[in-house]
Amino acid sequence: MRQYRSVIKTNKFPQLTRRVFTTADGLKSDNVTAMRFDNNGVLFVGTDKGLARFDGEKFSPVSIGAKDAAISMIYFNAENHMFVGVGNSMLEFDGKKKLSEKKFSSKLIDIKVDLDGATWILTESVLYKLGENGYDIEIGVPGKGSCLAVYKNNKVYVGTAGGGLHALVGKRWHWSELMEGVTGILSNTITCLYMDPVGSIWVGTDKGVCVYDDNSYWLDHSKIDGLPDAHITGMAIAENGDKYFSTTTGLIHQHNGRLSYYGYKRWLPSPNATGVAISPDGSVCISTDKGISLFETKMISLREKANELRAQTEKYNVRHGYVIDRDLEHEGVISTEEGHILASDNEGLWTGLYTAALCFEYACTKDPEVRKDAHRSLLAMIKLTEITGIEGFFARAIRYSDAVDYGTGARHEWHITKDAEGRECEWLGETSSDEVVGHFYCYANYFDLVADDEEKKLIADTVKKILDHIIDNKFHLVDSDGLPTTWANWDPDLLNNDHKWIYEKGTNSLQMLTFLKIGYHITGDEKYEKLFVEFAGKKHFAMNLMQYKIPDGHLLHIDDNHDFLMISLLMKYTDDPNLRSIFAMGLTHHWEDEKVERNAFFNFVYGAVTGEWYNADDCIDELMDMPMDQVMWPLYNSYRKDLKWDMSPAELGMPPQLYEPLPAHERRITSNDSNRFTVDSGAEDVAQEIFKKSDEPTAYTMFPGTGDDKGLVLKTCINFTHPYWYARYYGLIEDCE
């Protein structure tokens, strides 16, 4: 590998996590109607059935003297007295007892203190300004009051539910109406208001956010970027100026002029976010009609994140040394007491990548526990090669008679046997090229970075058996039925001459040359090097590699993953500069096609192999932005009006997808062989419900659900630890700890 010309040093960063709370955690009801942090950062949540206080772990009821009272508003003054709106009453508490109760003619909506220190109270029908001996101002609201914003010098705005925005003006106080169609306001349905430090008014409506200069200048999403185009239900402003908007389809965060989306169900228990509040420490609480979601951040390094994710994988995703996704019994419930690790079609591939990540980590840290885990999974990989009883042919998976899925699946491909210890088990055949890639990638990296002499001998023996099986069977894997498996074909006659293999021609040529190089490197057997020379030249596999990727509109990603795994090793073990130059042609062509995906591993491979610029910032952004929560939650994004759709996949009978993938926190948890351009999964019911509530005929998603995620699968950490430790080992990044 070439040394990249610079190293990216990363500091600790704020890692976002979320916790969801419902009636099961002490809320009086899941339908949250009001929220507020007090001056000490304690969260109080009002619902349609009462008030609750959060102690950091759970909620406990707060008695206000009225059973199951619907809470309309919560406010804390400078003395940290709590004011609670219950129907037409405002109750005041000092933390120990009720101090006062005031009656109004209609429901309490909001309390604000202006920059002059004056207190304003809004009900559905009247605005009050509190004076020393009563109310200095008491004026009826034209319409149904919904929100309030105050500044100084009696500059006050009131929003209404359908009656527009109203400014308090004149020597004799009266309302100046700002209405849709007459001014630049987006809608007459005003849901929230904020007065910024220069006196501009941020107006949340059912058609988005607009900003008004208090005279005649209006801005909204149709004029500038950075303002939401959604049905806004609430707004909160952080001390650093960040703005958070709750909407009927999730939460929108505006940071440095960019909008980020946090939706159902990874981040929120319901798409219908009804409000948002920010604590003094920066925590963000979002209310919905199905509970609340508490967003918290902690400063963490990439290495600490890798350690936490790997610890989770070791606890929940390891079965007999194989590292596989875990099936959950209940939505989002991660526990060793329930759920199962079921057999996978690709246990060799995923366990191989996990083990390779451990190899890179061990090379960087020399941690004996990492080596122990790597050795365990190496032996599991090798067991796949031994269980079939066919020398050099290995199984996709092994499962034992106590597994819940034992005896299921395509029975003609599952074979019952006993392992070396005499335990009954069954192994899965029809082994594909995916598995061979995973095995060789694992063995090569373990051999170079971890193995002692005994392990090197074991790996060399295993690699030799596999390669000889492939060579002896005319460059195929041949199953127990004597037939070549479907995808494990490296026969040069077929790859070069049969157009039914045209899409595999480049990829499988790359694989075969890499297998041979690894075989020669590990075993020292000259026959593999001679075959490499023959295949590269006479069989023109080197020419096949000049442009091994056939662009496919970013629809198929399995081979992309294989290609970057294999090219990283082929370039590592190829010394001839002329051959390296040829192989680099194919790599560069492939990377130019893939770089739009912002895939950290693909970018790191390109940077490590070539020493060229490789979109380093995209890699760091992806690693930092990737959620800690690895559950495959339902996902719904296609309602968003900011998305740019690529319709061309429909010509092939496939769902349209995006031109560019969403950020990691907005999309599915994706492996390197998954499609990053899809936006929905498992949320058809939510899409239909949102459509029913919308007054826009085109609001229903065109493409509901490109997956079936239901919060019932826990992914492994491979999508993070593999690119991270690869980059650490090859000197592309460093943590500043």
Plain-language structure description:
This protein is α+β, with helices and mostly antiparallel strands and 737 residues long. 28% of the residues lie in helices and 27% in strands. Among the domains are: 18-137 and 203-298, Methylamine Dehydrogenase, Chain H (7 Propeller); 634-693, no CATH class. It contains 15 helices and 41 strands. It has a four-stranded antiparallel sheet. Strands 3-4-5-6 form a four-stranded antiparallel sheet, with no helix packed on it. Strand 16 (156-160) and strand 17 form a beta hairpin. Helix 2 crosses helix 15, helix 7 packs antiparallel against helix 8 (526-536) and helix 11 runs antiparallel to helix 12 (600-610). The longest helix has 22 residues, at 502-523. The model is unreliable at 697-702 (pLDDT under 50).
Measured as a percent range, the helix fraction is: 25-40%
Query: Quick one: biggest sheet?
Result: 4 strands, antiparallel
Which residues sit in consecutive blocks of at least 5 with pLDDT less than 50? 697-702
Which second-level CATH architecture of the domain at 18-137 and 203-298 applies?
Answer: 7 Propeller
Determine Rg (CA atoms, Å). Answer: 31 Å
CATH topology call of the domain at 18-137 and 203-298: Methylamine Dehydrogenase, Chain H
Structural class comes to alpha+beta
| Overall spatial form | elongated
Helical segment count: 15
